[in-house]
Amino acid sequence: MNTQDVIYTLRTQKGLSQDELAEKVFVTRQAVSRWETGETVPGTETLKLLSNLFKVSINTLLGSPQQRICQCCGMPLEDEILGRNRDGSINEDYCQWCYADGTYTYSNMDDLIDISMGHMVNEDMSEEQARSYLRKMLPKLDYWKKYEELSDGGQFEAFKKQLITEINDLHIDGMPRIEKLNALVGKYVNLEYRLPGGIRVKFLDDQTTYLGTQLESEFGGERCFGVLANMDFILVCTYGKDGADPELVLYRKR
Question: pTM of the predicted model, to two decimals?
Fold first, then answer.
């Protein structure tokens, strides 16, 4: 689709009239009408407002003229996995796993490669081939080329180490010590727990990126421990295969 069709489709999907859209992005109804007839396209600042309003990239608003990839991990970027800046606006250069709320989540390329292995190794690509590919490709991406400029001087890594210490100090029976925490997007780990009285509750925001990991229980069996945390809380649970039958072990405010 071209820009005029994209704007029309997004506006109608959101149930907005041309007047209502114009008010939200500080233009006239006539300006919206001209966009949708293809007479003009929004300016740069208006495209930013439309991007935040519709939760899509400027690339999408312009008809997706090019396929973008995350400038940290190399993953193809779709609107639903774009990272967010501190003010909640979309960042079109990074995915949610590599950039969350204005924070870069990886400071070690080897850690990123280790995480990526699970998504790349298959019958057509061995682990050795995948590692070789990533070691050649990642240094070409903006984040790793500009690491000294973009990194936070180790503050985020220090925060992760603090979280790991706090979680290990809980001494939960059957749960191994944690060595690493990875970036996890809420919608993929937002399990529903049954509380006393039969109430079912989810504790996470699908759009937020958390730190977490999965650990095999020291008691054996098929159930695993899941750990999730951020600045505000620590959550520990157990579950079966593919997150089945989750049970909340601990939810603690930090």
Answer: 0.72
Q: How does residue 195 score in pLDDT terms, banded at 50, 70 and 90? A: confident
Q: pLDDT tens digit string along 165-190?
A: 999 999 999 999 999 999 999 999 99
Q: Are 50 and 42 in contact (CB under 8 A)?
A: yes
**Model pLDDT, residue 131:** 92
Amino acid at 100: A
pLDDT tens, residue by residue, 104-119 = 999 999 999 999 988 8
Which domains, from first to last, does the chain contain?
Answer: 3-61 (1.10.260.40), 79-150 (no CATH), 155-253 (no CATH)
161, pLDDT greater than 90:
yes
The DSSP annotation for the chain comes to --HHHHHHHHHHHTT--HHHHHHHTT--HHHHHHHHHTS----HHHHHHHHHHHT--HHHHTT--S--B-TTT-PBP-GGGEEE-TTS-EEEEEETTTEETTEE----HHHHHHHHHHHH-BTTB-HHHHHHHHHHHGGGSHHHHTHHHHS-TTHHHHHHHHHHHHHHTT--TTPPPP---EEEEHHHH---EEPTTS-EE--S-TT-EEEEEEEE-TT-SS-EEEEEE-SSEEEEEEE-GGG-S-EEEEEEE-
